[in-house]
Amino acid sequence: MRFGHFDDETREYVVTTPHTPAPWINYLGSERFFSLVSHLGGGYSFYRDARMRRLTRYRYNNVPGDVGGRYFFVHDAGDVWTPTWLPVKADLDHFETRHGLGYTRITGERGGLRVEQLHFVPLGEDAEVARVTVTNTSAATKTPTLISYVEFALWNAHDDQTNYQRNLSIAEVEVEQDGPHGSAVYHRTEYRERRNHYAVHAVNARAAGFDTDRDTFIGAYNGLGEAAVPRAGVSAGSIASGWYPIGSHSLTPTLAPGQSVTYTFVLGYLENPVDAKWADAAHQVVDKRGAHALLGRFATTEQTDAAFDALRAHWTGLLSTYAVTSTDPKLDRMVNVWNQYQCMVTFNMSRSASYFETGIGRGMGFRDSNQDLLGFVHLIPERARERILDIAATQLPDGSAYHQYQPLTKRGNDDVGSGFNDDPLWLIAGVAAYLKETGDVSILDEQVPFDNDDALADTVFEHLTRSFRFTVDHRGPHGLPLIGRADWNDCLNLNCFSTEPGESFQTTENQSGGVAESLFIAAQFVLYGEQYAQIAERRGLPDVAAAARAEVEAMRVAVLEHGWDGRWFLRAYDFFGHPVGTDADTEGKIWIEPQGFAVMAGIGVDEAGTSDSGTTTPSRAAVALDSVRELLATDHGMVLQAPAYTTYRIELGEVSTYPPGYKENGGIFCHNNPWVIIGETVLGRGERAFDYYRRITPAYREDISEVHRQEPYVYAQMIAGREAARHGEAKNSWLTGTAAWNFVAVSQHLLGVRPGWDGLVVDPQIGPDVPEFTIRRVIRGATYEIAVANSGAPGSRARLVVDGVPIEGNEVPYAAPGAVVRVTAVL
Ligand code: GLC
Ligand code: GLC
Q1: Is 159 a catalytic residue?
Q2: How confident is the model at residue 224 (pLDDT cuts 50, 70, 90)?
């Protein structure tokens, strides 16, 4: 069952009913000002940091759900309604939400009046703009009242939700009904003392009235759906003093039949220099010149429309770097639009603000942000570069990492734990992806601090060396990497035996045996250690490269000797040195992460042989992935391990705290499915790889939206696994490494076009279901037009013809900027 459809022409998802299983959201902004907006207008806005600079308020865990957003109430001759359906919930004659790239357009119609709200954050602005058009679709003249509403948060989102004894006395506003560009409400709580920023909610017309006090607007004991001012149809002119500040304007157009009126509303964030905050210091009046300038840029509908056009053109440009045309429209829309879009959002948000992440708990993750780069770097390489330098600056001198840093301060912290021993190696992954995309080796010479301390600065290459050395220097009894607090799987906590309710598995390390080892980090080291060696080689350091390769080889041998269980790779050795992820166990016999990652790293791949008796023996890589198919694959994707744990295993940590089938305990953790997908392409089994891809990819799941329940246009972190009562139900949509990894899997391995060191590799492995396709890839200034004729035969590899000339191998040498290179690939 569906609740809408894709519009591929406009690159929008069109939600056609308010009654989706859950709020289906979108993100506005991709620079400094961000908003979340649901298909019902819910959500909130912040400037750069969802915790430290929250502009508007949203209540997680609220009943009813998703109330709190930017709303426009209509009062039409006594009939009160909201075009977003919420919060009034009056039936609508027509409802439609179009989520596009950086904008959302919501249209509601009732009783002969249509309201269209177009929300976006203009490029270069620290503001959310709403272009609101009211149209009289009836046969009689109408005089409706349109009333806007936003509720201000008191800046620090955590304090805002907890510290009422202080906060309910501090709110302050200013109102300017006859401002230079219309009417404006200014939110200036704490501006008198240590803040030099304020917010504005304005409309580009002189409003008939305003409100700034929430309780006056809503009325005692009412919900927003019964709010008093919209019912009365007349603003009260309230001035907030403490309690709950809001911004609201009312407008009273007269509309002949068929006539429309359009307003631009702006919610903006402004900063003044600390020593120039006041227009009138004695009377403590905010200097509003910044706001006036902002509002002046959106004073007319033409200006607003021009900003919207610029935003759309911006996205057209971004998405022209990688585009496929195939016979499968679901594939095309995921690759060309939605997956890349989600990569941009995860790059911007990391894991901070979604409908599952409150924007209070987590900053930018070291591990997560590096992986996000893998799916983002081709979009805006300069921002990827800046991000790499920010991340590297939080690395500790011994090569280890703080697990996260705050975007506002860019300083690393221990709040969600540190000592995750996979963290350092992800920096190599991010830098290698950047180098292959851009060829910009100058980044390796950038001086970057360790631990944000300039006195400790060294080159980026030195940072990579310390990442590499960290694994080499932290190995356990089998020569495998020590796991520390956890590896990629946050919930495999082998040095934390927790019996305290509520104790964090991520910040508690109460065992220090130096024994628990990770096969995942081992495979990661083989993959990224080799990339480190390649970087060193290209830097003219053959000895460093050779020494690194010797370490990588030793690790490969250790994995094959101590990490093979018979039919798959082990997951770990625990605190006592017992294997985890072994057939000998009753539960958690096989885990997905080491299977996919080991094969991606090439471990056990080149071993297939024929015995004397003539029988063929498959490689361990093939055996491992066959076991994955047998034991982990479901119709909704591959589960993380099987069987899921049914009892609490104190020696494994958080993983077994989840009920069977959810999250890291037997859930379908979509982030690691692409590792198996890529692994299958390494083995030349494209048909299987593409089959797995379709099981988790949202556009292919759109028809079962009543089961999947989350947005059909973006990946979710998790889909409930086999043992769960709600098998197939997704959670944690949007902010997940699934976005980047699936884009890597589909664009670089299934469709097979990936940046190499010296050229663009063309190596499709997608099986017979996509017989022919073309890809346009722009990289290092040149454009590659690639036409693929694909038999899909297992194991076949493309033969390439470049500008009419057949070439050896599958790497098309990089051409000069401006060149157009035509490639045909036949397999
Ligand atoms: C979440 C975390 C990520 C971790 C994964 C598995 O997605 O953001 O860092 O690797 O869970 O535990
Ligand atoms: C990751 C995991 C989650 C775990 C959390 C702890 O996000 O996905 O299951 O609870 O880390 O911080």
Answers
A1: no
A2: very high
CA distance 805 to 823: 9
Ligand nearest to the CA of 487: 1
Return the ligand 2 atom nearest residue 654 CA: 10
pLDDT at position 506 is 86
What does the alpha-carbon distance between residue 127 and residue 47 come to, in Å, rounded to a whole number?
9
**DSSP output for 535-580:** HHHHTT-HHHHHHHHHHHHHHHHHHHHHSB-SSSB--EE-TTS-EE
Largest CA distance in the chain: 97
Give residue-wise pLDDT tens across range 611-620: 677 778 899 9
Hey, what amino acid is at 673? Answer: N
Q: Where are the beta strands (DSSP E) in 411-512?
A: 412-418, 447-450, 453-459
Q: What is the pLDDT of residues 656-704, one digit of tens each?
A: 999 999 999 999 999 999 999 999 999 999 999 999 999 999 999 999 9
State which ligand 1 atom lies nearest to the alpha carbon of 368.
Answer: 9
Ligand 2 pocket test target in 654, 658, 669, 671 with most atoms within 8 Å of CB:
654
List the structure tokens of 376. 């983002």
CA atoms of 438 and 648, how far apart (whole Å): 47
Ligand 1 centroid to residue 381 C-alpha, Å: 24
- Which is catalytic among the residues 160, 368, 422, 490? 490
Ligand lying nearest the CA atom of residue 420: 1
**pLDDT at residue 614 in the model:** 75
User: Which residues, judged by CB distance below 6 Å to any ligand atom, belong to the binding site of ligand 1?
Assistant: 351, 365, 367-368, 488-491, 664, 671, 717, 736-737
